[in-house]
Amino acid sequence: MAEHNGIRTKVAAGVITGIILAVLSYFSQALWPHIRRSLVWFCDAVWSWLSSGHSIYGWLLVIFILCTAICGFVLVAALFFRVSPNNWRSYRRDIFFGIVWRWEYHGERIGNPLPYCIHCDTELIPNEDCNPDRSGIQRLTRYICDHCHVTVQELDESFRQTQDKVVRQIDRKLRSDEWKKTLSDATDNG
Ligand SMILES: [Zn+2]
């Protein structure tokens, strides 16, 4: 019984498809000359507009050319810097000494990296202090997150010294191509 139902459904589907195809073919044959005439008319109109001369102010033409050049340049730059994952300038975040660091590039130079909380990604407050001991005065920097209300890290040096160390690490990873792995790991982890 189920087999008969299946055959009947298949026959019905075949008949309906045939009817739809016949109707479509009839209308396409009837409509095609109109569609073709419209297309030819449209192409003619576009071509005659393009090929005829237009009086336009020189300054307006200069603005059009400048806008086109700027748009083209922006598009190419966006494609080059954002789409290409192999661009070293995309490497602008890494973790060093238990802290997330972010930085910009000024030309070829690495800008001053800034510290961020490894837990909540808030920018950290580097609080410098002096820690006097028997060997003299030891500098100490506490990295405080005012969102987590914790000291994320304590390093026995000034903030400037740590920034310089981070810049040297970034420079090392850029030269050794290690940045590619860091970037692809970060992309994989979202
Ligand atoms: Zn935090």
Helicity range of the residues?
Answer: 55-70%
Shape: elongated
Count the DSSP helices.
4
Largest sheet, in brief, is: 3 strands, antiparallel
How many structural domains?
A: 3
The small molecules bound here are: zinc ion
**Cα separation of the termini:** 55 Å
Order of helical and strand elements: HHEEEEEEEEHH
Whole-number radius of gyration?
34 Å
Q: Beta-strand percentage?
A: 15-25%
Output the structural class.
Answer: alpha+beta
Structure description:
The protein has 190 residues and is α+β, with helices and mostly antiparallel strands. It has three domains: 1-52; 54-83; 89-189, no CATH class. The protein contains four helices and eight strands. The strands form three sheets. It has a three-stranded antiparallel β-sheet, with helices on one face. The longest helix has 50 residues, at 2-51. The two termini are 55 Å apart. The mean pLDDT is 86. Residues 117, 119-120, 122, 145, 147-148 line the site of zinc ion.
